[in-house]
Each structure stands twice: as structure tokens, then as C-alpha cells.
Amino acid sequence: MPQRTRTDSRPQVVAQGRPARPTPVRILWGGAEVAVTVGLVLLLLVVHQLWWTNRQARAGAERQVQSLERQWGQEQGGREPSPSEEPAPAGGGADDDPAVSGSPAKGRAGRTEAAAPRPDYDQAYAIISIPRLGLRAPVAQGVSKPNVLNHGYVGHYPGTAQPGGAGNFALAGHRNTHGEPFRYINRLRRGDTVSVQTKSATYTYVVDKTLGQTSASDGGVIGPVPRSRVVPSAGYSQPGYYITLTTCTPEFTSKYRLVVWGKLSRMTPR
Predict the structure, then answer these.
(1) Among 174, 183, 227, 266, which one carries the catalytic annotation?
(2) Where are the domains of the chain?
(3) What is the pTM for the complete model shown?
């Protein structure tokens, strides 16, 4: 008879070795991968903040400027100005300088132009132009970052004068990112012009003084008679018709404020 093969039913035991420990090379390689990933994320954030937000905000601000110009043109209806609305002469005598006469700028007919009406919050209602900087940007009521400044607009401080009004027409704008309209206001010099165009007139201010650095809480610089509370020698002591431009300094920080002041020189009706 053929012999039967005996089958062993006992379970087989397979010996397993200990898991291999990570070598220093593997640890360094993993750390490098993490560092590269974090670096790429940070780089993308910087690109977004410094390039993309500027691109978006500038495009939106320019569209708003064009929209205001179209709106004003339609409201004017192409009508010719009456004699009392003829522009003031470019030279401007003593009566056109509020610092000399103590009165607002006047047109050729000698009439005083009323200041612009108070707009709604976050609404763009004027256009600021600074020839030295090649800047044209919309001016909106309020200084809210999400609703005004981050759109590339220049913001009007609530409670300060309106364009052409007695007191201080005070403005704020980003120096870096989001269109950065006030990036280079540190380059403005005495005698440079800043024009503010509204639906009814263009108000031309002449740069007079600058304050390179003051506290972010120095509210005196936007007062009716602008004068720094931190640097008492900076500013004015007499009422007048002023414009104030404020932005952050040094660049890429918001620790201090840079201030530029000007005086109303003339008004040109539309």
C-alpha cells in the first residue's frame, strides 16, 4: 500500500525584524521638504499681497475714476459755462490765496464757491490728482480699510472739511499694497500741486509743509488748524483752507504716520 504523507497542522511562525530607524539623511530630507513647502506658501502670500492686490486695486480705482468722469459729464450735459462760472486765472492774486486773504479761493467774478456737499460713507465722490507722482485716484468718504482703502481709494477723514471748505480737508491712503496711492508722497516738495476734482469744481492746493514721522495717534495733524501734538513745531497756528495727506511710515509698517500739508490756491468751476 502506498504510504500517506503526514501533514503538519501546526501554524508556521515567521520571524519579523524591528522596523528600521530613520537615518539622519532621511530626517534632513523630510525637514527640507517641509521648509520648501512653507517657503513656497509664504512666497505666494507675498506675491498676492504685493502684486495681485495692487493690480486689482489699481484697476478698480481707475474704473471708478472713469465712472465719476462719465457721470459728471452726463450731468453737465455738455452745456457751456456761464460768465460767473468761468475758471479763475491761473496766476491767482492775493484774493485767491487763503493764506494771504483769509478767505477761500474765488473765481474771476469774485464769487465764493461753496464746499462740496457731504457724501455717503464709502462712496467715491471726488478725484485726487498729483502731477509730480502721476497719481489719479478716487476719493471716498471714510477711512475704512475693507470698504475704502483696500480698494485703492483715498479716504476722507469724517469730521474734517470737504474739498474747498474752510478748515482741513484730511485724507488717508495706503503706502504699500492695495493700490498704494500714497506710496511716494514723501517725494512731494513745497510748491507741488494737489488737485481735487468734484462734480462742481476743481480745487487746487499747493504743498506747503511735510512731517516725516509722527505717532499713529497724533490726531492734531488732521485738526481744523492742523498741528502735530507730538512735534509741536510742525503745522499751523492760524485758520485757513488746508489739505492733509497721511500714510504709514516706514514702508511696509504701520507704526508711524507721514504727513503732507497744503493750502488752497484756487478754485475752477466746472
Answers:
(1) 174
(2) 46-75+108-269
(3) 0.73
